Amino acid sequence: MLNSLSGRFLILTTVFVMLAEVLIFVPSIARFREAYLLNRLERAQIASLALLADDMLATELEAELLETAGVYNVVLRRDEVRQLMLASPVPAEISATYDLRMASPWVLVRDALLTFAMPENRIIRVIGEPVQEAGILIEVAMESGPLRMAMIDYGLRILLLSLVISVVTAFLLFLAVRVVLVRPIRSVVGYMQRYAQAPEDARGIIQPRSSVRELREAEEALQMLQIQITQALKQRERLAQLGGAVAKVSHDLRNILTSAQLFTDRIEASEDPLVRRMAPKLVNSITRAVSLCESTLAFGRAEEPAPTLTMVRLHDLAEDVCASERLALDESGIEIFNEIPEGYVMRADPEQMFRVLLNLVRNARQALMSTGVPGTVTVQAHEDADNWRVEVCDTGQGLPPKAQEHLFTAFQGGARKGGSGLGLAISAELVRGHGGDLLLHRTGPDGTVFEIRLPKGDLTF
């Protein structure tokens, strides 16, 4: 009960209402004390009227009038003359005087608190203005004990009433919270629990119904999250199935390429100069294809293997990539340039870096060919004190905004029609394995630049 939202609202409401009543209690008790004293002054004035009607009063009648008024004596000031109207023996000296004529609220509050703080019965003097303009002032002497007891009785009644009000208010708020907040929250929790049991079942997706704006926003956010999770789970299932199929294809393709690799040994023995010149490239391509198939099989079992870092002559690696892609060029007027200095070296896994550059150069070449406009693809490199930077630039028309949203996400970041987006996703993963980043440096009507940024770190080997 106390750990529930409605239970805590019940307790907090009771506490806050009682706190508000305490803040109201102090001025209320001060006002009660003032009214009590003014009532004594009025009763004393009424008692003194008997003396005005008859100058001589019997001692017994005078004592009865003073007892009825609750005072020991009455002094009335009329026409600048101070006159003792009624009097009886005062049992003790007057200990305090209170003038109600010009008392401010702070003074009334202070005097009320002092009355509570002094339990002994004292004789006090009270001064006020007569009612009906019957004089300039009226002054009485009275006991403080009955005043204090009346204030305590009034305070207890206020406390009891405050307690009843706070309990009733808290109970009503408790019911309101359960209806307005707790019940809709439990409904949302129920949807979440049912969805967790079967996330692939679309019937478990919440349908926003709440009329409370905040709760409806929460329901809409939960609905969007559930839809995204359901789609992600379906995509992951399809990727798992695709991964199994790719692993099988890679296994068979590796066997075929291994056989082809055996035939290249005989091709290298050919006397044809053109064949002898092209044979090493064919051997390298088949070797890399076999390695890629083996890596794909490994990827199907775990993650991309950790890179084997060595100091790589990047110019030679980039030249192999550019030469491979130049073979796919037609008469479209596209040119591929390797502008990396021959002495440029960087720390990387040569096979993985070859795959990254091949993906980037191939994407740039295919993007240019799809436009039918002549252009260039350029591979550049430079470095600073902290990083090696390799850039693949093209002079195409830039990436569309939709492609930029999921650029490095598999099956979502394809920049050309029919593309799967796997190339950039794999490249980004390989670069992250080196501790670096693959970035879209810029894209627009004047071309696109991708940047590979690898940290230098500790160069001690």
From TrEMBL:
Q: Where are the transmembrane segments?
A: 6-30, 158-181
Pfam families assigned: HATPase_c (PF02518), HisKA (PF00512)
The superkingdom listed in its UniProt entry is Bacteria
Q: Name one GO molecular function term.
A: kinase activity
Q: Can you give the residue ranges of the Histidine kinase domain?
A: 248-458
EC number(s) on record? 2.7.13.3
Sorted alphabetically, the keyword list is: ATP-binding, Coiled coil, Kinase, Membrane, Nucleotide-binding, Phosphoprotein, Transferase, Transmembrane, Transmembrane helix, Two-component regulatory system
Catalytic EC class: transferase
* Database matches in Gene3D superfamilies: 1.10.287.130, Histidine kinase-like ATPase, C-terminal domain
Q: Name the chemical reaction catalysed here.
A: ATP + protein L-histidine = ADP + protein N-phospho-L-histidine
> Where would one find coiled-coil regions in this protein?
215-242
Q: What is this protein called?
A: histidine kinase
Q: What is the lineage of its organism?
A: Bacteria, Pseudomonadati, Pseudomonadota, Alphaproteobacteria, Rhodobacterales
